[in-house]
């Protein structure tokens, strides 16, 4: 069972974990041992509340397919248990970030002092550049 928040949990049968061989270098061990974990989670057919499903499916994340299946590949660690834990943590973090509501940006005008500072710095830069011209005798 994976705990997302105080009220939301995912059951083990909802998450499909598959052991696969890790990619990349690692010597002889990497060719023999299936230590990487391939996690798949079907959002549409899960027991998550509807608001969670809507927000997750609205994310523009490459790990979420058009069918609503989240796919996470964990191969950072040498042991299968650590990779399994890492994949589950990454799934929980993805679901939690989908529920964070972004604060709307309110447009503001620049202050009078900031406008004056900008114009002063532009004037200084212009004077510096004008001094680079040809010297008159």
TrEMBL record:
Domain Prokaryotic-type class I peptide chain release factors: 21-37
Keyword Hydrolase in annotation: yes
Database matches in SUPFAM superfamilies: Release factor
Gene Ontology biological process terms from the UniProt entry: rescue of stalled ribosome
Keyword terms, alphabetized: Hydrolase
UniProt keyword 4Fe-4S present: no
InterPro entries reported in the protein's UniProt record: Pep_chain_release_fac_I, Pep_chain_release_fac_I_sf
One MF term in the entry's GO annotations: ribosome binding
Domain of life of the source: Bacteria
Region (Disordered): 102-137
NCBIfam families (alphabetical): PRK09256.1 (NF006718)
Family, per entry: Belongs to the prokaryotic/mitochondrial release factor family.
Name of the protein described by the UniProt record: Peptidyl-tRNA hydrolase
Organism: Vibrio hepatarius
Taxonomic placement: Bacteria, Pseudomonadati, Pseudomonadota, Gammaproteobacteria, Vibrionales
């Amino acid at each position: 069972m994976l705990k997302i928040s105080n009220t939301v949990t995912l059951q083990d049968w909802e998450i499909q974990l598959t052991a696969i061989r890790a990619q990349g270098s690692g010597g002889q061990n990497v060719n023999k041992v299936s230590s990487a974990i391939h996690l798949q989670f079907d959002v549409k057919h899960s027991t998550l509340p509807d608001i969670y499903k809507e927000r997750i499916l609205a994310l523009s994340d490459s790990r979420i397919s058009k069918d609503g299946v989240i796919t996470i590949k964990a191969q950072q660690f040498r042991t299968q248990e650590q990779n399994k834990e890492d994949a589950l943590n990454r799934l929980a973090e993805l679901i939690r970030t989908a529920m964070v509501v972004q604060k709307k940006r309110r447009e503001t005008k620049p202050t009078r002092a900031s406008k004056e500072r900008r114009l002063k710095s532009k004037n200084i830069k212009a004077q510096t550049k004008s001094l680079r011209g040809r010297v008159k005798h």
